[in-house]
Every structure is written in C-alpha cells, then in structure tokens.
Amino acid sequence: LSSNGDAPITGYTMTYHLHPRGPYRQVSIPRHTTSYYLNDLACGQTYQAHIVANNKVGSSKPSVVVTTKTKGGKPGIPKKSLFLKPNSTYLRLNLGAWPDNDCPIDKFVIRHRPMLQPHWITTADNLRNQRKFTITGLMPATEYQLQVEGHNAAGSTLADYYFFTLTEDGEEPPPELVEKSQISLPFYYMDMKMAIPVLGTFVAILAVVCTAFVCLKRSTATIF
C-alpha cells in the first residue's frame, strides 16, 4: 500500500477471526513491516484476515479477505496391538500411541461394557495429560467393547475396539470361547454411524412396499 499524497502511512491494522464464528481480534503492525506472523492460533482451524493502512487522515479500505487454515488435524486412531494390553482383571491403555496429527490431544473420554450388555460404564470423561491409563474391575476370560474419544483443537475422533481379558491363569481365552462370541450382535450394539444408514434403508424399503401396495389396491378398486 502506498502513501496518500503528503500523508505517509503510519502503520497497519490487521483484523482476523476464527472462521466462521470466532471473535474478531486486531493487531497493530509498524509501517516498515514487510511480513508479519500471527501467533497463538488454534491448530487445525480456519481463519480469515484483512488489513487496512493508516495515516493521519484516516484508514484505507480493507484489503481482500484472506482465508487460510492452520496446520494440524483431529486425532487419528491407533492400532489395537499398540493401544490395548489386557490382563485377567484389568486393561492397560497406551494413550501415547494415539496420533495427534500435529495438533496436541487435549483430553480423552473412555467408556467400556461387557458384550451383550446395553449400558456403558464411563471410566473417564475428561482425562488429560496422561500417557497411560488402566481400567480395573474386569472379569477374566470375558469379551468387552471399548470406546475412546480423542479430542484436540481440530476436532474429535471415536475409536471402537473389542477385546478379551485373559483367563485367571493369565492365558489367552480358549478358541471355542472366541468363536462363540463371533455371533450377530444385538441392534443396540451397532455404532450409530452404522445404525442410522441401516434404519434409513429399512424405512425406504418399507415406504416403497407401502406405496406399491396402495397403488395396487387402487388399481384393483378401479377395475371393479
């Protein structure tokens, strides 16, 4: 931006905000600055910014709005072998195995339940600053379902795992027990991301059948 006649530019004002609903903030930039870095931004987020030039007469029109995204993404999902270590009566979680995707993980939410049980047991709903965590009070040679949510500034990720605890002697559960567990689960055991499409498909098929039945009934009534 150039000077305006005899009124040289005295500085710049940058206005920026977290898109789309973040609060607006401003920063003053010295007149001779050729580049400027915004610090303390949230990772994995989209920001918008524009700049105006100032002199003793006033301020220029705003520049073109620039939209950009900071580096980082929501947490990834670790491999089961790296994350879970079951014992006879407890499960050890290696939270440090969670990929943060360049955006530090703020907290974890952990819940579990024995298979064929509809209700979750919330073990931790705001777990912070821990790389290891142990779920105790489990039954030997029993299959469980585990859900863990990892949260960071970019969003959250839900991981779903199934595991067996070891026997009372610390051995792997017998193969026949594992095979027996591989049966169809009750509907309430389906993750909602899977259950909703299934319900939608069922409703759509039911609607088509009902429509065909009504049309057939009307056609029959017209003939007679």
UniProtKB/TrEMBL annotation:
<dbReference type="InterPro" id="IPR013783">
    <property type="entry name" value="Ig-like_fold"/>
</dbReference>
<feature type="transmembrane region" description="Helical">
    <location>
        <begin position="194"/>
        <end position="216"/>
    </location>
</feature>
<dbReference type="InterPro" id="IPR050991">
    <property type="entry name" value="ECM_Regulatory_Proteins"/>
</dbReference>
<protein>
    <submittedName>
        <fullName>Down syndrome cell adhesion molecule-like protein Dscam2</fullName>
    </submittedName>
</protein>
<keyword id="KW-1133">Transmembrane helix</keyword>
<dbReference type="GO" id="GO:0016020">
    <property type="term" value="C:membrane"/>
</dbReference>
<keyword id="KW-0677">Repeat</keyword>
<feature type="domain" description="Fibronectin type-III">
    <location>
        <begin position="74"/>
        <end position="170"/>
    </location>
</feature>
<dbReference type="InterPro" id="IPR056754">
    <property type="entry name" value="DSCAM/DSCAML_C"/>
</dbReference>
<dbReference type="InterPro" id="IPR003961">
    <property type="entry name" value="FN3_dom"/>
</dbReference>
<keyword id="KW-0472">Membrane</keyword>
<feature type="domain" description="Fibronectin type-III">
    <location>
        <begin position="1"/>
        <end position="73"/>
    </location>
</feature>
<dbReference type="Pfam" id="PF00041">
    <property type="entry name" value="fn3"/>
</dbReference>
<keyword id="KW-1015">Disulfide bond</keyword>
<keyword id="KW-0130">Cell adhesion</keyword>
<dbReference type="InterPro" id="IPR036116">
    <property type="entry name" value="FN3_sf"/>
</dbReference>
<dbReference type="GO" id="GO:0007155">
    <property type="term" value="P:cell adhesion"/>
</dbReference>
<keyword id="KW-0393">Immunoglobulin domain</keyword>
<keyword id="KW-0812">Transmembrane</keyword>
<dbReference type="Pfam" id="PF25059">
    <property type="entry name" value="FN3_DSCAM-DSCAML_C"/>
</dbReference>
<keyword id="KW-0732">Signal</keyword>
